[in-house]
Structures are given as C-alpha cells and as structure tokens.
What does this fold into?
Amino acid sequence: MRKFVIATIGILYSISCYAQGVERINMRRSAQWPKDYVTGKTMIEVTFENPDGYEYEIGLIRNAINETWAKYANIEFTNWERASYRQKGIRIRVINRADMSDEAWPHTNGLGTQLDGLENGMILNFIWPGYPSNISRNDAIRFTAVHEFGHALGLAHEQNRPDYKRNCNCNVAIEETKFKGDGGDGDYYVTPCDENSVMNYCNRNWNNWGRLSYYDVLGIQTIYGKNPALTPSADQQQNVTIVDDLGTGQTWENMYVVLGSDQRTLHVDSNNSRDAIQFFNKKRSVYYKVWCSTYYGSRLMQGYGDGFITVPENRSSAFEVLLVGEPVNGKATLVLQQIN
It folds into this structure.
C-alpha cells in the first residue's frame, strides 16, 4: 500500500471527513455578536455576579481568553468587574460545589447573544470534580473558560451534529453530552470537521488543553474577522496533526512519530480504524522521524524514515507518509511528502 498516514500542518485533512462536505464547526448563526460598523470589532462586556474572593481565578480566565479567542479574532472582551443592574454582555456566576449535578457542571445557558444580559448566563465551578486528575487546578480553570467562552461566542459542541459520530469516529454517546446546560445546537457550518476542536468532547486532549485548534482559529476568524493586531509569529503558529487510517488488507498498525522536540504514538486496528494526534509547532522547517509496524494479513512489516519538512509560509500544507520503493525482507523506507 502506497499511503499509511496523512500528516497535516495547521489543518486536519482527513479524506473520509472532508469528502462528506457537511461536517463543520458547529455554530448558531443568529447567536453572533454584532460588530462595530466603523471598526469591524466586536466588543463584548464580561462581568461576574459574585466576584468577591475570586480575583485570582478571574485573572486566570481573562488571560486565557485573551490568549485564545481574543488573540486570533477581531473581538475585545471588556469590563471584567461586578455585574451591575441590567448589565449587558456575558454574565458569569461562580458556583463552587464538589458535585456532578447539572447545576454545578460548568456550562452556559444559551449560545452567543442568547447570553446578552442574561443573569447567570455562564456558570463556572472552580472545584468541580469532573476535571481530569492529571492537570492542575489553574489549568482546569483556564481550559474550562476557553471552552465555555466558545459557547458564549455562539459555538455549540462539535459532537452534537447528528452525523458526527458516524463520519468522524466519535466514541462519545451524543445523548451523554446533551444535558440542559450544554448551550444548544448550531445551524451554521464554517470549517471541515475538527476532531481537535476545543469544543469537541471527543478530543483525546481534554478541551484541547485550552488551545485553539487550527480550525477553531479559522472558524472564529471567519465569523468575527481576524484580529488586525495579530503578530506574524502568532498568526503562523502551526498545528501539526497526524492521522492514521487502517488500510485495505491491514490487520493493525502501530506508528511512532517524532516531530521537532515532540513525540506521539498512534494505533489502529479493526475496532478503531482511525487514530489522530496533534502537535503544536511554530518552525517552518521541522525535522521528523517516523517508525511503523503493521500486519498485512499474516505478514509483519516494519518501516522507518527521517528528514525535514518545510512548511509553506502563510498557508496550510498537508503531508503523507509514503513507502519508498518496495519493502525488502519485511522492512520499508518511509518519507513525509507534501500533498498540497
């Protein structure tokens, strides 16, 4: 088989997802916040119903939002103080309860402008027991805020689309992710399916570790415009996604990939025909190493390759792992080659 895996720089390029043409970042069109007709900037006030004693946590949240949604899109979040009478914008209440009830679950009570002036429109819980045990409390607060502010900007859960599980290998039951506080469903499809979205419960990295995926950035810029103050280094941050699909005749495959200073493993078999991993990288020239071990029927084959890939400036690029020639004694030479 000629192709084992597709590696994408800054773009998840998955044939089975992309070809469907219907999987998109999940937004409610009517929920978009208005832009200033002169500057084009969207200004949104953020206030807290009960800020006393949470100054430190509010600082974490503000920094997280300014380093994600506000960094890449033409949006500015202002105020960050106590909500006043008839306050407009996003109004947040902190409910610190160590239980998994709907009321204590971090959530929004709507999407986008449905929250405008809504008392307790967003609920945050700094001691929620549902946070992963392998991250710090500060990270849990920041990662949760990035996800919930996605709802506040009008984005619904990526996995809420009825066709997502079938086409994008989502193993989370849709019913399990729909409770009364999940913000609702979208009706506006902006970018191709994104298994790495910060809005996706099926993401193997919880809330994508608080970092926007390539398609999160592209989607929010499509909706709200690109931040005109965006620096070249921030704009050119590359999200490198490696996707491995089980090929015809393959029983299983293990792959180990080193890209720059980071390393990941993938595994596919008859029960899980696709695996995907994401790297974060800013360099245009990146050194890689890739190893694979796979069974074609009863025949074991191993492969190795290394070299440099050059990321074209100011656009996304896709790469695939190719066999060089024919395997010799069950061993193959692999190379990453640009495909777009």
User: Anything to note?
Assistant: The first strand starts at residue 3 and ends at 9.
